[in-house]
Each structure stands twice: as C-alpha cells, then as structure tokens.
Amino acid sequence: MNNKIPPPIVTFICGLAIYFSKTFFNQFLSYSNNRISIFLLILGLFILISAVRSFRKQKTTVNPLAPKQASSLVSSGIFKYSRNPMYLGMLIVLLSISFKFNLAGGIVISLFFYLFITKFQILPEEEAMNELFGDEFTEYSNRTRRWI
Fold first, then answer.
1. From CA 75, how far away is CA 26, in angstroms rounded?
2. How far is CA 4 from CA 50, 70, 80, 115, 118, in A?
3. Rounded to 10 degrees, what is the CA torsion of 97, 98, 99, 100?
4. CA 58: distance to chain centroid?
5. How far apart are CA 40 and CA 68, in angstroms?
6. Which has more confidence, 67 or 96?
7. Is 0.85 surpassed by the pTM of this model?
8. Cα–Cα distance list, 117 to 26, 29, 47, 56 (Å)
9. What does the CA dihedral 106, 110, 113, 117 come to, rounded to 10 degrees?
10. What value, to the nearest 5°, has the Cα angle with vertex 107 and ends 79 and 5?
C-alpha cells in the first residue's frame, strides 16, 4: 500500500483544513447552507455506517491499510451502487462541513481528498482485490462504479 495514513485520519485532517482555511476564501453562507449541510452529514454518515455494517455482516476486515486480509468480496447492500461507499461517505461528510463553514475552500479541499484517496487508497486496494478475487472482482468492478 502506498498510503500509511488511515482514511478516517485523512478525512479528519481535511475537515480541519476546511474549517481553518475559511479566512482565505470568500464566504457563501446562507440559511439554506445549514439545511444542505445537515442533509449531507446525515447522508454521508448513513452511507458510511451502511458500508461498515456490510463488511461486518460478511465478517471481513474493515482495515483500509490491510486490504489483502479481506476474506470475502462485499458486493451487496450499499456496495451494489459504489465500490467505495466508505470513502464516498467520508467525502459527503467533508462536503457537509464545506457547506457549513467554507464552501469555496471546502470544495477545493474535498477535491484534494477525492484525488488523494483515489490514488493512494482505492487504486492499491483494487490491485489487492484483483489479486485476491480475480474474475469475481473484475465482474464486480465492471458493473459497479468506483465512487457513484
């Protein structure tokens, strides 16, 4: 694995960066931003928790730094719609923070998160899944999008 930083820590750091960089960006705050932020937070947490529950249900590892320890390929539940719903949930939570505190800066930092997680987490995980599950993973990746 190229990434030694757990994705929840990357998410936390990006969330702090969104909040603390708000003085560097124009603010676009309105009452509707709060509603959008709450909706995105609930959606992101729902997706994230659903993904973790699917992993636990199939009794496979949730550890993102050790994908080769996976005992089964999870392709049901929320994984029918996204190959990486945990990271999608984290991204949506970051967008929630963006709408609440720093929309312009948050979008930039969320884009950084998206690119970072794809390059240093998802692509190495996909290599490991391909080694572990071969054709089963290939079929799954052909019918299910990486993010959404």
1. 41
2. 25, 18, 28, 16, 14
3. 50
4. 20
5. 31
6. 96
7. yes
8. 26, 28, 17, 22
9. 160
10. 60
At 52, list the tokens.
């973790």
Neighbours of 69 (CB within 10 A): 11
Report the amino acid identity of residue 65.
L
**Which residue is listed with tokens 């080769």?**
68
What is the C-alpha separation between 65 and 43, in angstroms, rounded? 25
With b for 16 or more beta-carbon neighbours within 10 A and e for fewer, the 119-147 pattern comes to ebbbebbbebbeebbeeebeebbeeeeee
**Residue 144: CA atoms inside 13 Å, Cβ hemisphere, count?**
21
- The Cα–Cα gap between 62 and 56 comes to 8
Mean pLDDT of the chain: 94
Which residue do the tokens 């959008």 mark? 36
Q: Is 61 exposed, middle or buried (0-12, 13-18, 19+ CB in 10 A)?
A: middle
Measured distance CA(60)–CA(125) in Å, rounded: 14
Q: Please tell me the predicted confidence (pLDDT) of residue 112.
A: 98
